[in-house]
């Protein structure tokens, strides 16, 4: 063999050394040789360290596995379970248990031969199709799950049936690598210790189906009222579908439709795998599933199920069902009861008349995002309306209640509440060849209107124009910031989105309106204040997560419109159910074109409430069932009751916007409108009352696209307006409207040249409020008003307003008035008085007053005759004393004989503490009980104690 040290040295005596061949030296050859030599030396140097590193990693890995394995239960003990503890869900005070997730688990162990073959196959199809071939876990599944989770952020399971059994029967639900390794090791051991059928049997007896239901037998009894051996193929597929997400897919939750979709998927997959035929799958899909009615003690049931779903998604079923948690929620039970009563009354009063069977209400604290009340349906336990479905978290079309989002986006872009658009019948080019032509609810056209008037009156055509001017992306970007999760697929939406063409969830809709309430600051929705484990350790606690998503001034403009009862009165009338007496409130209705959905969304600075009304099966309601009719009474009742003990709060008024661009500043035709006094028919002056002024175009009539570049509304005017693809369609609508109304589109209309000479400064009435004085404290439930007024033409009427709301109009000209204040909250209010003559010349004065409403109730005590007196002579005077008589407006005296029918005796309007009733006609002899009904200034009735007399 050759000498490794010198390959040219002879290895035997007989060998001779051959002469070396001549070597031709090539450029860089020496460098290449040196490089190879360096690499060899480096490799020889590092090799021992690499070997040592691999060895140490191996030792560490073995040590870790040994450490992890030291406490693993043996396969013989896998069925021994720890004692479970009941998890309780509380209201926000922690004093009332809304729901107890019982510790006494429902589980009935059965043998595998008691489970229909197709039920086993359904489970394997749904959860682990390679169950009979793997050794406890699937490397492919684990890798696939890890990749998908890392790339998409979504949770994709990679667990086998064996792993699921281990996770639910043996290990905790903590999300750590150590627990995952334990799960794999135990799964492998179980596979070595039990047959596949034994493992499947254990799985079917152990897997959770939500709440306290474990195992297929308990699930079958709980959901269908029958043993597992008797379930049908359709029911088997239902049971196979639930364990994937037990709370989400609960038959008693809000996602029953998703449960049925998953059931159909499993049936189709079973047919593809050859377990059943396609005909069997189709027959099973057509089978009507009858779920056993839920019978549990539960307060605020939809909210509780919502909480359970949140907990399940975050902590897992086993953890929340067995670990003795105390969950303190945000629900305000007082407001929850008010909400439930309001929904109940709304159903009772209007459901039959307008053809609906369901309603939902959500209320939030806008300052925190906390859910205060949640009514998901009219009756949780009513199967006829799918009462368990929580409509407040299901997508529904919002109708015009989505308009504020569009208008707010337009303000952000640079448009103003005073921006003029033409409310005229218009074709919108959609690019599909078929134009879109929206119509107003009343089929009328209003001509030039401001965005303020259009939103307040919920006009459809201007809203669609506002959407186009704003841009769909800007609208949807704002919707994202406001927290909507249902508007991600932007290709689905067009200009009709402003009329409710998309779908939103009531809960998220309420969050958007809560953001309006807080002037553009969004607080994330929260339902949980705190969670404690069984040892009292806090494992989760509420932290406010807020973000300013819109600058306050833009939102103030929106709120100023939504809270202006006068602005919407031309459509809804003054003092509608969208107002609260003595309290500023912003509100918007919504109704879909086919009357399938009716909404009211509204807010004060401290409370938000949203109401949806409709049918569970999406059936149309009757004509006229719009939001202001069927949803507003529910909303109004809730807001009145929920706020009755809270002081009135005001919204911050926006600054007046002046852009210098006529169409944005409320002037049509590029500053080509004039104001006409409707009484004189002449040009209005500074003395012309607003109520007698109308604006008319004075020159050519064009829509806003003629004057404004929609993409830069405050920038330069468009050089060629016709370049906009909607220009000619909008102009055609304006021209048709102008011709119908006798207005020239080419030149000046017939405009007067003389000025109003009817409304003169010397004729303007003067008025002064003598009583109450400014900032006077009022302790009664009525307000005595005295005025001083003078006018050259006499007083035609006097208007009395409180906090901007017209209370009454006095036609007699009397300068004294007594206003009832029932319904007003305590605190400061503004009284305004308008004195008008026959030409609408108006004089105005206003004062503030401080109302104290916590007044004592009137109480009646009997003076004579005394109790059990013997009475012979009639008429009989019955004397009584009435404390706090100023709070009573009427006292009625009644009597009964021996507890029989009540009969009326006398009535008094108190003017002092002493009352003298007259019982004129003598009744038949016998024992009588007398009592009085006392009505306070708010018409609330109180009943006195009873006085017994014996008539001889």
In short:
This protein is α+β, with helices and mostly antiparallel strands. The protein contains 22 helices and 37 strands.
Question: In the CATH classification, which architecture of the domain at 99-293 applies?
Answer: Orthogonal Bundle
Shape: globular
What would you give as the CATH superfamily of the domain at 99-293? Biosynthetic peptidoglycan transglycosylase-like
* β-sheet strand percentage: 15-25%
Helix percent band: 25-40%
Main β-sheet: number of strands, strand sense, barrel status? Answer: 6 strands, mixed
Assign the CATH class of the domain at 99-293: Mainly Alpha
Q: What structural class results from the helix and strand content? A: alpha+beta
Number of strands: 37
Poorly predicted tracts of residues: 1-32, 61-70, 152-156
- Can you count the helices? 22
Distance between the termini: 149 Å
Rg estimate, integer Å: 40 Å
How would you sum up this structure, described in words?
There is one protein chain. The protein is an alpha+beta fold and 952 residues long. Among the domains are: 99-293, Penicillin binding protein transpeptidase fold (Orthogonal Bundle); 663-740, no CATH class; 761-851, Sandwich (Immunoglobulin-like); 859-951, Immunoglobulin-like (Sandwich). Helix content is 31%, strand content 21%. The protein has 22 helices and 37 strands. The strands form 11 sheets. Strands 30, 32, 33, 35, 36 and 37 form a 6-stranded mixed beta sheet that branches. A 5-stranded mixed beta sheet has the order 2-1-5-13-14. It has a 5-stranded antiparallel beta sheet with strand order 7-6-18-17-16, with helices on both faces. A hairpin with a 5-residue loop joins strand 16 (586-591) and strand 17 (597-603). Helix 8 crosses helix 9 and helix 9 packs antiparallel against helix 10 (278-286). It is globular. The model is unreliable at 1-32, 61-70 and 152-156 (pLDDT under 50).
